[in-house]
Amino acid sequence: MSFEKFQFNEKVLAGVTAAGYKKPTPVQDQSMAHIMDGRDVLGLAETGTGKTAAFVLPILQRLMQGQRGRIRALIIAPTRELSEQTHEAIMQLGRKTKLSSASIYGGVSIVNQINKLRSRVDIVSACPGRLLDHISRGTIDMSSVEVLVLDEADHMFDMGFLPEVRKIVRHLPAHRQTLLFSATMPDEIRSLANDLLNDPVNIQIGNSAPVMTVSHKFYPVQTEQKTALLNDILKKTDTQSVLVFTRTKSRAKSLADQLIRGGHHATSLHGNLTQQKRKQSLDGFRNGRYEVMVATDIAARGIDVSRISHVINYDMPSTADAYTHRIGRTGRATKTGDAFTFITGQDAELLRSLKKLLGDKWQYQKVDGLTISPSVCESMGKRAGQLTRRGNGRKLFPSRTLSTRKPQQRSFKDAHSIFCSPRVQQAV
Predict the structure, then answer these.
(1) Would you identify the CATH topology of the domain 209-426?
(2) Are 369 and 361 in contact (CB under 8 A)?
């Protein structure tokens, strides 16, 4: 199985070869022929499975024919990083095609974007907010759009962008090809797909790649011991590039600063950084200048770094879906990776949900002097849930909010997971 079977234009195929692609991933193999036939596609696949190339290559193939210099393909993404990375993928794969691409997002000068749009662009990768700004200013012409791509649609829902997406669609030609890709399928995304897609081909890539290719290790720990545990892991574990997730922007910055003072080549990525600083951090992490990046969830969908060997959840994510997206940064495609998660007593409820999701793909880890007994951690969670504030009945230590999505909303098929007795291993 190779890319030659799709009969790409030789200039498109040259980009595939230059990028080092040997054979299509399952999502590429199952979707590209339908996209090239002009069909609408509803794709359900986890991060790291090759979705970007799955729609970029057919778009390049299509745009090799027809008039140049007008926007014929529009790709909407939830984050600046993802928009920029899609643009970079277009430039890499389409290097021989001479097709022009622009990335449109907030946090940078709109004047430069206006000048770029005036220079005759074929493909636009954009975030919803800044794109609507251009529409209101009359600085973008989308009357020639032939292909609309909604990438990471569930994340756009999580970030509250669906109303903006619907507004954007009203400015597009009614006769177009629409492609929607998502890692999960909540009711809101299914409703959006029903409204926008015409007789779509449904593509689902089996079990999520991260769950299959990532080992999941849980470290029961007291909150005040988290940083010491992280330092111990970084010192004793054979790592390549490590992505550490925190819950808040301030903690991402402070933890990165602590790691730097401890001698690590570390950086941070969070919403308080300027776009220039975010790009510097991401580029430095991608090229190996930084061995550790401490990030908030803004990075979960915006980092495409194939060499990430470990994801460490310093703070537990808020939902099981968020966990999936975080750990999707490692174990990409057929590669393997490790996900380490620090759990405290207040994480007990979400931990139970993750155990169900992962089945037998998880383990408790023990580090002498730094971790606590899993049973102690779980009992702490039970006691915290039972304590209430005097007089108002509220929980003193409220457990983390779980996702309200029903299991069947995670995919086209009902999710199947089982409980398994945990195994406890001594960390190396």
Answers:
(1) Rossmann fold (3.40.50)
(2) no
